[in-house]
Design a protein that fits this description.
single chain; 676 residues; alpha/beta; five-stranded antiparallel beta sheet; 22 helices; 52% helix; 20% strand; disordered N terminus; binds ligand C2E; binds magnesium ion
């Protein structure tokens, strides 16, 4: 039963109301007719009873009158029976209607859906109790105002249009809109309005059935969100970013004054960090990087206005994670590459601040590639590809920097792809050779060891390791390649040493790349090579560049300790070019520093470089380390290095890297006489 607060249930529309109307009309006629006949009959009877019957009137006349009265009485009886029948029918229809009314109430009162009846002016004539359950309003509260009061302002127009369309067409349509819950929340309703005809056949009232689909909508939104966002960082994923990019490209095509740039951001050495710190720490780092990037972009609007005096800003959700350690950003209204570079540099600065991962301080850097919309791109993927190429260019240029894509970059990327394929083939066909560059003792002037350096001999000529080593490292080809090189170099050393019996024994320096350094079983692998070649471990010198060694301190320390445990010697290569944390040096189990040739080449002409070399030598000696000067090309440099008490030198002055035959000749002459 309806509560007091509910208005009366609406009349059941349609055939039933039409039928009752007809029967009611007919019943009135019948009753009217019966009354007239009854009055006439009564008048006849009175006349016959009270008035004196004139005997002159013949008996036939009276017989006629009696027949007439009898006939009239029979007619009245038939009418009465018919009227009774009509009355019973009316009663049955009314009972049917009452039952339907009750059924309607039962359904509406118990339905989970909210059912309302509104009049032409939008006033609520009936609200089912579900309104209270779903939206928290009582019937009085709802009836007090118009039916549109609780509808979201931006949905109102749509709802009113649908209602008037339902009234005019006689057919309701389903629509979704938001309605305010009493507690202020917005609920999403799926609603169908069906018009009801009044007695004149006009459609004024509407029965509205509303279903609360908020939870379903939320679930749908969640699924959609999941399909378009990265689960780890909650940033948009590749699919969503590509879609946005596509829209921006179309906009740029239509409006010549609109342009944008895409930044491709990649964390330097993330794989190494991830392998060494563990994947959960790697994930945490990515989350923190994402947060920092997002914060950075929130500021970009301000940076853009104040520093660039343009209206550059990150579009909504313009930051995305493509996967792994790759992030992308879309910067709207950036016209000058220099503006994009300024923003990219700011990002690099922010990323360079230490991250706290599980109580451990981690310092990372990023490389950023920039591609601008101006290059008449066909699709989003082309633009992304170019931003990525630019990012790789930044990596090769030394990481922690940004590069802008240009067509020249593109062709260099194509060249690189070819290089990768050729390198695979080259390794299979044995085109990789080992060259040896002697290392000289500055005290004795004799060759004390060699550095093994790769050379790739193709039909077109020699390819520099500067070109193919980074490719080999990124593709993982470096692992089988260097395994073979190390073994060959170690066996070569064994053969020279046994032929010449040098004292102290000759050493062989081997270079280690970032990917090798990240290998969990690097020490085991080197140990196996040492065993296979049969040389004493102390005659092998492993060179690790300063950048690798200064990455993650704990990982570097543990790898270096494992290597040291094999009995090999360890050197920091290209010292002076990376960001050294000098405080770490004493902790590391290293034996020597190799001063980068950049400082050696200018030490005679530039006072600062001379000073740097002097300080590095002093620092190394204070830590009990030996020093090797790389890239020595002049006698003047040698004199100065001797003066600084640098122990060893390597460079074109003595010999460039040469093949094993030439290296043996150098060795022979060095051990026959002192050449320096
Ligand atoms: P690096 O270890 O610093 O090797 C020294 C580089 O300096 C060599 O270049 C050598 O040819 C060059 N060099 C030596 N003396 C002079 C000089 O007086 N002047 C000048 N201008 N350069 C000199 P290369 O052979 O081109 O190797 C470049 C880098 O590639 C190496 O730097 C090393 O890090 C890497 N590399 C080369 N071969 C291998 C390899 O087989 N495995 C690994 N992991 N890395 C390698
Ligand atoms: Mg080296
Ligand atoms: Mg070096």
């Amino acid at each position: 039963m309806p509560s007091d607060s509910q208005s009366a249930s609406p009349r059941s529309p349609g055939i039933a109301s039409l039928k009752i109307h007809q029967i009611e009309g007919r019943e009135w006629w019948l009753w009217g007719f019966a009354v007239i006949v009854t009055i006439s009959l009564t008048a006849g009877i009175i006349f016959l009873t009270f008035f004196d019957h004139d005997s002159a009137i013949n008996a036939q006349y009276w017989t006629d009158v009696k027949d007439w009265v009898r006939g009239l009485a029979a007619l009245v009886l038939i009418f009465d029976i018919y009227t009774m029948y009509q009355h019973r029918q009316l009663q049955r229809v009314r009972r049917d209607l009452a039952e339907r009314d009750e059924l309607f109430q039962l359904i509406t009162e118990n339905a989970a859906d909210m059912i309302a009846v509104v009049d032409a002016a939008g006033n609520r004539l009936y609200n089912s109790p579900a309104y209270q359950k779903v939206l928290g309003y009582s019937g009085e509260e709802l009836s007090a105002g118009s039916s549109v009061d609780q509808i979201h302002p931006s949905d109102r127009e749509r709802v009113l249009q649908a209602a008037s369309k339902a009234r005019s067409s006689g057919r309701g349509q389903t629509l979704e809109y938001r309605m305010r819950h009493k507690n202020g929340d917005w609920r999403i309703l799926e609603s169908t309005a069906s018009p009801i005809k009044n007695g004149n056949g006009k459609m004024e009232r509407l029965v509205i059935v509303n279903r609360d689909i908020t939870e379903r909508k939320r679930a749908e939104e969640m699924l959609e969100h999941r399909a378009l966002h990265d689960g780890l960082t909650e940033l948009p994923n590749r699919a969503l970013f590509v879609d946005r990019l596509q829209h921006s490209l179309i906009r740029a095509r239509r409006h010549s004054d609109y342009s944008f740039v895409v930044l491709f951001i990649d964390i330097d050495g993330f794989k190494v960090l991830n392998d060494s710190l563990g994947h959960s720490a790697g994930d945490e780092l990515l989350i923190q990087v994402a947060k920092r990037l997002a914060a950075c972009f929130r500021e970009t609007d301000t940076i853009a206005r104040s520093a660039l005096e343009t209206n550059s800003k990150l579009t909504h959700d313009g930051l995305a994670r493509l996967g792994g350690d790759e992030f992308t950003a879309l910067l709207d209204d950036v016209t000058e590459p220099s503006d994009a570079i300024r923003i990219a540099r700011r990002i690099l600065d922010k990323i360079a601040h230490p991250f706290n991962i599980g109580g451990q301080e981690i310092v990372v850097s990023a490389s950023i590639g920039i591609a601008a919309s101006s290059n008449s791109y066909e699709g989003a993927d082309d633009l992304l590809r170019d931003a990525e190429i630019a990012m790789y260019r930044a990596k090769r240029a030394g990481k922690a920097r940004c590069e802008v894509f240009d067509p020249a970059m593109h062709s260099s990327a194509v060249r690189r792809l070819k290089l990768e394929t050729d390198l695979r083939r080259g390794i299979e066909q044995g085109e990789l050779l080992v060259y040896y560059q002697p290392i000289i003792s500055l005290e004795s002037g004799k060759i004390v060891g060699f550095e093994a350096l790769s050379r790739w001999k193709t039909v077109q000529g020699m390819v520099s390791p500067v070109e193919f080593i980074p490719v080999a490292d990124e593709t993982g080809l470096i692992l089988p390649m260097n395994r073979a090189l190390y073994l060959e170099a170690c066996q070569q050393l064994q053969s020279w040493q046994s032929k010449l019996g040098c004292s102290p024994p000759l050493t062989m320096s081997l270079n280690i790349t970032p990917r090798q350094f990240a290998l969990p079983d690097l020490a085991e692998e080197i140990g196996a090579i040492l065993q296979q070649s049969g040389i004493p471990p102390s005659t092998v010198n492993l060179e690790i560049t300063e950048t690798i060694a200064m990455g993650d301190a704990d990982h570097a320390f543990s790898v270096l300790s494992d290597l040291k445990a094999l009995g090999v010697r360890l050197s920091i290569d290209d010292f002076g070019t990376g960001y050294s944390s000098l405080s770490r040096l004493p902790r590391f189990p290293i034996d020597a520093l190799k001063i980068d040739r950049v400082f050696i080449s200018q030490m005679s002409s530039d006072h600062d470089n001379h000073e740097i070399v002097r300080l590095i030598v002093m620092l190394a000696h204070s830590l009990g380390l030996k020093v090797v000067a790389e890239g020595t090309e002049t006698q003047e440099q040698i004199t100065e290095l001797k003066h600084l008490k640098c122990e060893m030198a390597q460079g074109f002055l003595y010999s460039p890297p040469v093949d094993s035959t030439q290296a043996f000749e150098l060795l022979l002459s060095s051990h026959r006489s002192v050449t320096v």
